[in-house]
Structure formats: structure tokens, C-alpha cells
Predict the structure.
Amino acid sequence: MPNPGAIAAELALGSLTLHEGLIASLAEAFKREGFTLALVGGPVRDAILGRLGNDLDFTTSARPADSSRILKKWADTIWEIGAAFGTIAAKKGEVTVEVTTYRSESYDPQSRKPDVNFGESIEGDLSRRDFTINAMALELTTDQPTFIDLFDGAGDLAKKVLRTPGSATDSFTDDPLRMLRAARFAAQLDFAVEPSVISAIVEMSDRLSIISAERIRDEFVKTLMSPHPRLGLRLLVETGLASHFLPELPKLKLEIDEHHHHKDVYEHTLTVLEQAIAHEDRLGGPNLVIRLAALMHDIGKPRTRELIPGGGVSFHHHEVVGAKMTQRRLKELRFDSKIVDDVSTLVFLHLRFHGYGSGEWTDSAVRRYIRDAGDLLDSLHVLTRADCTTRNKRKADQLSATYDSLENRIAELKAQEELDRIRPDLDGEEIMAILGIKPSRLVGEAYDFLLELRMERGPLGAEVATEELLAWARDKELGSSK
């Protein structure tokens, strides 16, 4: 049987041709000064997988001051912000490198910040890495590049399994964020997680409480934006990790979908997420807002659950409750305000289409649908289609055809009325001139009245709009109106 290590070494060395001259020159710069240098961690893993990028990590026997001195001569730009932790970053051409001194650090169990101790060997450095697939290295300052794999990371890479170099409990005690990284790598690489690692996460999920919201958010986003988010989300829910930062997701397992399409709303949600991803080409590719909206769209159901006589279940107004819950949760995870607003808006609107019936909406209702969605209209199209998860093919085809009809009507109205730039037929200056009033809240009220009229009846023209405005003013008994 072929040796996975030998195969991995050959694959990794083959991938290095992408940056062969640059890596060789960096290794020579360190070797000339009497230091070792090895490509390490994720880049070695990615080199074996044939997807080496432009961000390269190295480990060295050089102390940070020495690394800085060498890199200043070699690179176009350097950054020393991580020097206290042994890391000097630099950029040469299109490639960014991080060179970190061998580390052998210890952690306070109540803090994720390490007490950094520089190590003396690459073996010690590799033993403190998160997973075996990230604990491989290519020593570059020997006569020939040497592949170092002390924990059979190449074998685990071939078997597609995540395992820690040592005890998973010790690893997660040192750095609880590694538990989230397990979910992220499972989702990114389509890997299974070794049972002992899962058991350790279950036992230690409470340690996530010492991690900042920003760091949790970043790992969660990487999981959600991966090629296989269902794998990572399942691990987060089943180990209890999600309960610490996204408790709304595991709570969906308790609810039965009122249409009995899935065994529970949780399974339905994961299916909606995957179906939204399948439509992301409409949004230009992977899209964080639509993935978050798909994940959060039904989180209001547990709070709105009501039993119906005869054994059914309803979740009236769960979109309203869910939008508020979404806004609160994403703010707690320190998401950007624009993302918070966009995702909560989509959650609020995700049921609107179901009032369309078989096409009974008036043009006015279609205009309001467009107005309320605003620049999220394409995202709402994707979310609404993804949310149609019935197993009944006839009903699924009918829903799809009905939504096709709505999209066609939207396209027609947009072409006729320029709805992307919908405005009243009179602007603020014209309103003030017609009513003989100065800037005030009345101008805003009149503007809103005309906008509502525009939504209801379509374009009116200046003459009809003026007549309607004057009638409105008379009803309000504005003395200056004619």
C-alpha cells in the first residue's frame, strides 16, 4: 500500500513550484543567517490538496527581532504587530508570509491569551497545533526540502478525518476556539471528526464562554460560507457549541413543521440553506446575507408555536418575532449594522409571497413588494424559492410557476414604471410651492401621501398629482391650500 506520507510529500513539493523562486529565496535568507525555516500548517495541507494560495505560514528558529531584520531585506513591506507573539508578517509581490518563531506556550484556563514561550525545536512547535492535518511541515533549509509529519497528518488527510495531535481535552483547554475550528474545517474540507474529539467538545463546550463574540463570529462565518456548511452546523448543534452563541438554531429541533415536510424545523432550515446556496449565482456567488437569512428565517417559530384542534401546529407572525430575534442575535455577535439590517429585513419579508395565492395580487400589491424589499429584492427571490421545500412534486412545480409569474409581473412593472427609482409625481419643492408652505413636517406628510398614492395607482402625472395634493390639503384644513 502506498505510504500516505511519501505521497503527501511529493504532492506538497509539486505545489511549491507555484512560488518556487520566492520560497527558495526566503529560505536562503534565513539559512544564510544560521536559522531554520519551514513551511507549516494550513499551507502544507493546502499544498498537498493542490490548492496552495498566496498566504504562506512559516516557522523558524529565529527570534522575532532576527526575523524582522531578515524580512526587511527580503520583502517589499513588513508588519511587526504580532512580534510579541513571535510573528512577523511581510509581503513580496502578490504573496503574503507570516514567519513565527517556534512556540511552546501555556494557557491560563480562564483566558484564551497565551503566555508565549519560544521553543527550541520544530517538533515542539508542531505538537501544539490544533489538528494533525495542520501539524505538518516542509523544512526548507536542509539540503533538500524535508517533509515532517510527526502525527500522521497525511494519513488523516487521506482518510478525511479531523484529529488532534495529542489529547483533544488538553488542546481545547489550551484554546477553546479550536472547538469551533473543528466545525469550520469539517465544513470547508468535507471531513469527519474523530469521535474522541467530538466527546471532548461535548464535555468542554462551556469553555466557549471565555472567547470573545468577534472571534466566535469569525469562525461561525467561515463555517457558514464553506462549501459544506451543513456538516459544520450539525457539529455545532450536536456538541452543544451552538447553544452558547446561536441558541435559536438547536431550539428549532423541538418544533414540528406545520406542513410535515421535514421531521422538524431544524432539518427544514438546513435544507433551505442548501437550496439558497444553490441559487446564489443570482447574487453573484457566495453571499453571507442570504446564508444568514436562510439560517435564521424560522427562528421565531418556537416562540409563536400554537396547537391547532385536530393535532396541527401553527406559528402565526413568526416572521415578525423572528426578525426581532435575528436583529438582537446578530448584534450580540458583533455583525456589521448593514448585515444585521439586511438579514432581519429578509426574515421579516420571507412569508410575504405566500399572500400572492395564484396571482391575485393587484399591481399595487406588487409595487409594495418591490418597495419593501428595496435593494434586497433579488435576495428575497432566492430566499422565497429556497423556502419552498415540499416533497410533493406537483405542489413544488405549482409554487415555482406561481413565483415565476410574480417575477414576470415585477419585471414588467419595473420596465413600465422604473420602480427601482420610485418617487411621488411631485417633489418637495413642488409640494411647498403648490401648498404655499415652508419646510416642515407637513412637507414630509404630503410627500408620504403622494408616495402612497403612487404605489396604489401607479404614475399619475403632475396635473392629477396636484389635484390629489390639494384635495388632501383641504381634508387637513390647511388654510393656505387653494
Remarks:
- The chain has a mean pLDDT of 88.
